[in-house]
Structure formats: C-alpha cells, structure tokens
C-alpha cells in the first residue's frame, strides 16, 4: 500500500488517513442486518478476548456478562458488529478488536487508558470530529506521562468533566502527539450522542 | 467480586533471573495467584519499604486517571477516591525496593460507577451544556436533583484553562446551535401538527373490505408493532406494506375503520397531538 503511494524521489509520503470512517455518526435500526443469539461457548470466547484486551476486567467480567445472560450479536452495515448483553450494547467491533461502549466506560472508568481534551474541543468531539493533537497537549488537555503506543483504543475525557465523552483510537503514540502536535491524533469511534449512543430497541 | 473494603498488600517477589527486588500489589486473598498484566513502575530508590507515598500517589493518579483531590495519603495508607477504599502498604523492611510492579488487580478493585444521565438529552448531566436542548435539560435537572443542579450551574463552577474570550466564543456558538435546534424542533412540531392520518377503506370483494392506514410514520411509532396490536385487537390479519408512494401503511383485514379511528385518536391524545386530523375515506376497487 505504501509503496503504491510513493512517487519518484519522494521517499516518504506522509500518509494522511484519507478514509477516516466514522462508525456511528449515522447509525440506526435500519443498519442492522441480522440479529442472533450467541452460543454460550462463543460467549466464553468473547469474554476471554475482552479480558485479554483489558486485563483489568478479569475479576469482574463474570459480573458484567453473567453466565445466564443472553448475549445478542447484531451484524450491521459496514461490517460493524454489536454485542448486546441483556439488551444493552456492551461491545462493538469493526475489525478484530472489541471496543467498549460508552455506557460500559462510564461504569468502569478506571480500566481503560485515558486521555483528556481541553474545553474548547468538547463541542467538536460531540459532533463527531477526530481529535487534533493541540486539543490534547494544550493546558486543559492531558496525556499520561508514559507513552501509550499507536493504535491503542483510548477513552477521551474532557477538561472540567468527570465522565468520558468518547472512545477512539490513537493514530500516533502519545509521545508522538506531544512532539508533533499537529494533525489528527485520535480517530473517533464512538461519542456521546452518536447513533450507537442513541440506539434503542 | 469487588475488592472494596480490603487492604491491598505489597508483596515482595524476586524472580530468579533478575536480582532486582520487586513488589506486586495483590489482593490479600489472591496472594497465591500470579498477577496478570503487570506494569513496571519505577519508584525512586529508597531503602525502607515504607513506600514514598507522595510518589505512589502520583502513580496511582496516572493509573487510575483520578485527579489529585481523589488520591490522598495519610501515613502509610493511600486513599484513592471512593473506588478503591484503601491501599495499605506493608512488607518486610529488609527488602530494597527499586521497582514496584503495580498489577492490574490493584486497579480492578472497582465497582461500577453510577452515572447520572440527563432525562432529556441522555448525556451525563455535566455534558448537557453541550447538548442541543440545554434549556430543557436544565429545567429537568432542577426538578430532578436540585442539589446537583446548584453544583453544576452555580457561578463558581467554571474553571477553564481557556481565556475568557475563547470561553465566550464557545458559549456563543453553543447558544447559536441550541437556538437553531429549538427552532428546528418547533418547525417539526408544526409540520407534525399539520400532517394527517388517512384511514382508507378499500373494497376487496363485494362485502369485504380492508383498512389501510397511511401517514403514521411521521409520529415515530413502530409500524410493525402497530400492525400487531391491531391484529390482536380486532382478531384479524394486519400487516405493514408499502403503498404506491413507497410509504409504509398498516393494512388491516376487515371493515374496522371506525374502531381504528377511535384508537388512533386516543393514541395521538396520549402524545399530545390532538390537532392532528384523522380522516376516513373509502376507495373503490378499480
């Protein structure tokens, strides 16, 4: 892919992700194609996978997804998949990685890596914009001291607010964000007020 | 299982391949288990096991993501918010502590947080100001939880890193958006009120009719459920079909026009849309 985009004497083309997709900006019931109940064996696999990704959930995963619960699997437009536990969306996935819904993040805020944007950015995040680096590095923003590698799923908080407002993926590591400090730092997956948030059966 | 109300003990461990001493934060009842997903953390070298609480506090802030006011230490006990009640730090003094592992277990001592969601815009209440129905949210919260309302919307509550100029800009654009949204809602309500429901009586054979209800889709009702209720209500068949204009209609078998009309009128009354016209027309078979 990269070599495809390199031309002549240009050694390195900085690839701006051109097709940033926004998972749930528009999402409604019509986008659900099939609904099925998940077998208990698959459910177990799902649980281990999630715990692998977020080890902090190990002691409470059985609380979160009790053995007796019904887990539903919705296949949606654009290969998005939702997992509902007792009628509430807990995880969704687009590719391989399981992502937490904001309701879940609100319940267990400490178990996810977090970043913070300043107050000026809240408005844009809530309308689904990808997060630019300056919003994270300015005075109101916050990044952890140690590095979080690229492609990690992080939870976005906001200055002066207690609860999370979005879930996204780091397009560069946090160290890079600090040093480069421009362009898109986090690609937004899921935010307050998007289609998934407003999704009700 | 939650670890609340338990002390978490720092257990010294020394892996064979590594001469450095480490600690693992483990729940007392879980001491036999190897912690999963450990994280290496550098604590400033100090000889006693009495952990540099100051530093520990910072670390926990980083890991838990909680602000300074929620992580405090008194003597050797770290109080970390109300999520993990206490971390008691113990250990044998002979151990030189250079590194400390903080396992994820220490952070899983979490019981779910109850977030108060706004009844109007469904956001956590603190985000209402960025929502589209801020005024309504505010009124709702004032009624629902006056104390929280006071806390959120008192003058002193605002502390922002932005200059007042920028702050003004934000609130201005928000106000603009909210005003726009209000107008939009008003317009929608108007168009809703001016819309009408059409109950068509269509002849199938000489004495048999079906009733088709059109124009329901604007009222945000589930057509399929509607058909189902009609079917059980009138003990007939009812279904949702697309009509000539490609809009959904509920089609009910049997001549039940009047009953349907009263039902729909009642339904609209419940929604506070009494002005909506409901009309009955009969259509001849071509």
TrEMBL record, chain A:
Keyword Membrane among UniProt keywords: no
Organism superkingdom: Eukaryota
Gene Ontology CC: cytoplasm
InterPro entries: MCT-1/Tma20 (IPR016437), Pre-PUA (IPR041366), PUA (IPR002478), PUA-like_sf (IPR015947), Uncharacterised_CHP00451 (IPR004521)
Keywords assigned by UniProt, alphabetized: Cytoplasm
Compartment list: Cytoplasm
GO terms (BP aspect): formation of translation preinitiation complex
SMART domains: PUA (SM00359)
Pfam families: Pre-PUA, PUA
GO MF terms, alphabetically ordered: RNA binding
PUA domain span: 113-193
Entries under PANTHER family matching the protein: MALIGNANT T-CELL-AMPLIFIED SEQUENCE 1, MCT-1 PROTEIN
Function summary: Involved in translation.
Family: Belongs to the TMA20 family.
Protein name per UniProt: Translation machinery-associated protein 20
Species of the source: Ogataea polymorpha
UniProtKB/TrEMBL annotation, chain B:
GO BP: formation of translation preinitiation complex; translation reinitiation
Record's signal peptide: none
GO molecular function: mRNA binding; translation initiation factor activity
Residue ranges annotated for the SUI1 domain, each copy included: 197-268
Annotated localization: Cytoplasm
GO cellular component labels: cytoplasm; ribonucleoprotein complex; ribosome
CDD domains according to UniProt: DENR_C
Keyword Cytoplasm in record: yes
Pfam family, one: DENR_N
Gene3D superfamilies: SUI1-like domain
Keywords: Cytoplasm, Ribonucleoprotein, Ribosomal protein
PROSITE patterns: SUI1
Keyword Iron-sulfur: no
Comment field on protein domains: The SUI1 domain may be involved in RNA binding.
Protein family (similarity comment): Belongs to the DENR family.
Subunit structure: Interacts with the 40S ribosomal subunit.
PANTHER family with a match to the protein in the record: DENSITY-REGULATED PROTEIN, DENSITY-REGULATED PROTEIN HOMOLOG
Protein name per Swiss-Prot or TrEMBL: Translation machinery-associated protein 22
